[in-house]
Amino acid sequence: MTQPTGRISTRRLALLLGEWRAGGSRGLAAGVRGLVLDGQLPPGTALPAERELAAALGVSRTLVASAWDRLRAGGFAASRRGSGTWTTLPHGPGAVPELAEQPIDLARAAPAALPGVGSAFDRVRDRFAPELADHGYHETGHPELRVRLAERFTARGLPTAPDEVLVTSGAQHAFALVLRTLTGPGDRVLLDQPAYPNTIDAIRAAHAVPVPVPLPETGWDLVGTEAVLRQSAPRLAYLLVDFHNPTGRRLDAAGRERLGAILRRTRTPAVVDETLVELDLGDDPAAGPQPMACAAPGQVITVGSASKSHWGGLRIGWVRAPADVIRRLVSVRPAFDLGSSVFDQLVVADLLADPEPLLAARRDQLRVRRDALVAAVREHRPDWRFTVPPGGQSLWCALPGPISTRLAVGAQRVGVRLVPGSRFGVHGGLENWLRLPYTLTPPVLTTAVRRLAAVAAQLSSEEPDSPGDDLVPVV
Ligand SMILES: Cc1ncc(COP(=O)(O)O)c(C=O)c1O
């Protein structure tokens, strides 16, 4: 690229860089490089003038100039007198060294922490001393975080008081706690299928029985849901209506009203998993439907998490339910643990004090990554079909044949980890399906798809002559 094709404002670059600015010229160069690899600074983006950026970051102009030198030396920037400095990607195969032979983990759908989470750690450390004078056990959650979470629910249209909130060590912990409290051995739990595999495992670990309702090609099977609720009378329903994992789909406002009415008619308590609710990749996240709990107040127990909006390493989640349900959960909790980390709770409380800028950054990041994955799959495997999800963090691809497990096994040879479709089924199956998360950077995703496309091409050339050859007659 011999000249820039776009530009980024000084303010926006300073925001995206977050704490990278603290690491001197090496840190600044690493930050810009990360943004180029992440797709947030596409090749050809003109960087702000050195003097202007230096003033905005509160550093010397020499430091910025030296960072730009580093970027040029690594192939991540080019400059020309009169045109300034702009971003580039190093040329040639293996030019981005970390991609050459790097194993790529597409088994986990979990993004790294956003710049900004580290700054919250710093702020909390600076004011943490008084906490050390206390015993540190908060079985219902740190009061400051309970207040912030109640405010966030209220702002989203679900009026909530702090005593209707319980802080947990992640959403998975929250769900396990609800299962232990509300279900007994042999009780049935309804869930949509494909399902988040750890949900299936949690239901079984509670000695309950998962009862799947297959999701149609698009949308939701609410008629099927009502039929199962009537015929099997499950003790609990597990609902993932906000950017469902793995399909990414979302139930609209009218669907929520219908589903709420079904829950009320059948008197079924429901756990609504909102782990992915903040990952709305549409144009206007504020215009999304109201929380599912609004459609069946009193019957819905909402679980949520900071894992995808901010960082999974925080291990902070929560339950929002009527205060008497919260009290029951708290009485069961000591068998699991005696509270969540105070430091991590205060970090989340800090992040929720003004959540929008970081949430917007997370959405921007995932939008870029989703679009890069969509483009790579369309280019390299046009026979894999999918609906572009409006949010969440994965594509759910229909494969041209029942090859998901073979593909996952073959992918290991080329350094890509995958979860085969069968893990998303209560009784296996789903061999025609594959989940592809888009939580890694665009160059990594494109490299992964290239490698997977080669494995898939090999599999199709190895198709058995007669599909019936391996069948064993049942007598
Ligand atoms: C739908 C869903 N629920 C729960 C979890 C677990 O979240 P946490 O890290 O908060 O335990 C995940 C993680 O991927 C998820 O996708």
Beta-strand percentage range: 5-15%
Task: Please give the share of residues in helix.
Answer: 40-55%
Using the CA coordinates, give the radius of gyration.
24 Å
Choose one word for the global shape.
globular
Number of strands: 15
CATH topology of the largest domain: Aspartate Aminotransferase, domain 2
Quote the distance from N terminus to C terminus.
68 Å
Distinct ligands, ions and cofactors found in the model: pyridoxal-5'-phosphate
Number of helices: 16
Class by alpha and beta content: alpha/beta
Number of domains: 3
Low-confidence stretches: 465-469
The main pleated sheet reads as: 7 strands, mixed
Q: Can you describe this structure?
A:
The chain contains 16 helices and 15 strands. With 475 residues, the protein is an alpha/beta fold. The chain has three domains: 86 residues, Arc Repressor Mutant, subunit A; 110 residues, Aspartate Aminotransferase, domain 1; 240 residues, Aspartate Aminotransferase, domain 2, CATH 3.40.640. Strands 6-12-11-10-9-7-8 form a seven-stranded mixed β-sheet, with helices on both faces. Strands 1-2 form a two-stranded parallel sheet. The protein has a two-stranded antiparallel ribbon with strand order 3-4. Helix 11 links the parallel strand 9 and strand 10. Helix 2 crosses helix 4, helix 8 packs parallel to helix 9 and helix 15 crosses helix 16. The longest helix is centred in the C-terminal third of the chain and has 25 residues. It is globular and about 75 Å long. Bound molecules: pyridoxal-5'-phosphate. Pyridoxal-5'-phosphate binds next to helix 8. Pyridoxal-5'-phosphate (PLP) binds next to helix 8.
